[in-house]
Design brief:
The complex is a heterodimer of chains A (116) and B (352). By secondary structure, chain A is an alpha+beta fold. Chain A is built from 3 helices and 5 strands; from the N terminus they run αββαβββα. The longest helix of chain A is centred in the middle third of the chain and has 18 residues, at 41-58. Chain B folds into 3 domains: 4-126, Response regulator (Rossmann fold, 3-Layer(aba) Sandwich); 142-254, no CATH class; 267-308 and 315-352, Beta-Lactamase, CATH 3.30.450.190. Chain B is 33% helix and 26% strand. Chain B is elongated. Chain B starts with 8 loop residues before the first strand and ends in a 9-residue tail after the last strand. The relative contact order of chain B is 0.07. Classes of the chains: A alpha+beta (116), B alpha/beta (352). At the A-B interface, helix 2, strand 3, strand 4 and helix 3 of A face helix 8, helix 10 and strand 13 of B. Strand 3 of chain A pairs antiparallel with strand 13 of chain B.
């Protein structure tokens, strides 16, 4: 991960309720970090990459950037996909107390980052 | 003349309209069966003299008064008579006036025109009647989520009626779970989120009555959290979008906005498909390729299940997508599948 992204995450984490995040760069390089104890890092990475992949299939023709929310019974995944192909996926608890505003701000800020 | 011992409530009504004052005072006296002592004042200095001479339980104050308006007088009352219960009456249907009054300590903000019985009921509910059991009081500036949380935590059954100037709805609670909500033509979670997104208004708890149909099955904690999330997103969206104009606030739910109806936001529903879990089409509107959409339901469900393997995520429920110029929601429920696609015609994309 480059310095810009390191700074991006260090200035925004931790976020209450965030279980894991995964970032996929335009060159498809992947970085995942898991904070929750309720699931294995490998399972979190598998879930987030799977969700990102499935999200891309939903994009209508001519669109390259979007935001997604995948809702499961106990967890939800927020995805911000940029026009340059970079994606940020946040795995969040489905419970009261989650800092939703900060989750949203992080997704928004990711979309607005200059070149990654 | 009324006997002192039977007076239950002292009321001071302040309004510059002398005829209206006389009519309202007579009506309230009659409705209270003479148990309310009602005094009147046509201006603020008279009102202050009256209060100095004898305190009252409640001051009913008209917002629109010549000279010092009701809001200024409310501010003055707050300083001179802290704790004084004040009910504001106003012909202004604007939220900022209501908010200002409540922030300045008004207990209630009622909009005119209001019927005598309605006014009496509102004033009577504030104080006077002896409590049957437990505590009695007035909660000010309380959120609907707080009320629902209290009701649900206590495992109660009731119907919460919520109203604003132009919107009214009911939330049904049964044994501590929210089972149904309705607001205008909306029902279910949509109605619930709409009501919980209202900026302010009046509420009343009524005895539980079974709704025609139960439309909500999620746990109340999740519902309240979802409502809070919608509101948070509405807040961040309004800052993000130019002019703070209405739009769909959620990219985790379909195009629901807190208070404004879909049409008012300019959101255009472009496609709807509702099918059973076995693929039988139950409803469709402007769906150009039903087969491919039914296939999409299957794919999404499989992909979500595959992705979530080995995690404690539970059942996949829905996915939504926001491209800045449109939204799509796909909901996968045990008994049905739903796809709704909408467009925001005048909004520029924001994610690029």
């Amino acid at each position: 991960m480059n310095d810009a992204l390191e700074n991006f995450f260090s200035s925004r984490l931790p976020i209450v309720g965030l279980v894991a995040y995964s970032i996929q760069l335009p060159d498809r390089a992947l970085a995942t970090q898991c904070f929750g104890k309720s699931l294995y890092p490998s399972a979190a990475e598998h879930m987030l990459t799977g969700v990102v992949r499935s999200s891309r299939t939903l994009l209508p023709a001519g669109q390259s950037a979007a935001r997604y929310c995948w809702v499961f019974e106990c967890l939800r995944v927020y995805v911000a996909a940029r026009a340059d192909g970079a994606c940020l996926a946040l795995l969040v608890e489905n419970s009261p107390g989650v800092q939703m505003l900060r989750i949203q701000e992080t997704l928004q800020a990711f979309g607005e980052l200059p070149e990654i | 003349m009324q006997e002192e011992g039977s007076i239950r409530k002292q009321l001071l009504i302040v309004d510059d309209d002398t005829e209206l004052l006389a009519v309202v005072a007579a009506a309230l006296k009659k409705l209270s069966k003479g148990q309310w002592a009602i005094r009147t004042a046509t201006n603020h200095s008279q009102a202050l003299e009256q209060l100095k001479a004898q305190p009252v339980d409640t001051v009913v104050l008209d917002v629109e008064m010549p000279g010092m308006d009701g809001i200024e007088f409310l501010r003055l009352l707050g300083r001179s008579y802290p704790g004084q219960q004040v009910v504001m009456l106003s012909g202004r249907m604007d939220e900022s006036t209501r908010k200002t009054c409540l922030e300045l300590g008004a207990t209630l903000y009622l909009e005119k025109p209001i019927g005598f019985r309605e006014l009496f009921a509102a004033l009577d509910s504030l104080a006077g009647a002896a409590p049957e059991s437990g505590f009695r009081g007035v909660m000010q500036r309380v959120g609907l989520e707080d009320l629902l949380q209290m009701e649900c935590l206590a495992r109660k059954s009731s119907v919460l009626t919520v109203s604003t100037g132009n919107q009214r709805g009911q939330i049904y609670i049964c044994d501590g779970e929210i089972i149904h909500a309705q607001s205008g033509q909306l029902q279910g979670e949509m109605a619930l989120y709409g009501l919980l997104g209202l900026a302010g208004g009046e509420f009343a708890f009524q005895p539980f009555a079974e709704p025609v149909r139960r439309t909500i099955s999620d746990q109340y904690e999740f519902l309240l959290m979802e409502a809070a999330r919608l509101r948070d997103e509405a807040g961040s969206e309004s800052g993000r979008r130019s002019g703070g104009q209405g739009r769909a606030v959620d990219f985790g739910e379909t195009t629901v906005e807190a208070a404004a109806p879909t049409e008012a936001r300019g959101v255009r529903i472009e496609e709807v498909l509702l099918s059973s879990s076995t693929g039988e089409v139950l409803y469709q509107r402007e769906c150009q390729s039903i087969e491919s959409r039914l296939e999409l339901f299957k794919q999404l469900e499989q992909q979500a299940m595959q992705a979530a393997k080995g995690t404690p995520s539970g059942r996949f429920q829905r996915v939504s997508m926001d491209t800045g110029s449109g939204c799509m929601l796909v909901q996968i429920q045990p008994t049905f599948r739903l796809l709704v696609r909408s467009a925001l015609p005048s909004q520029p994309p924001t994610h690029e």
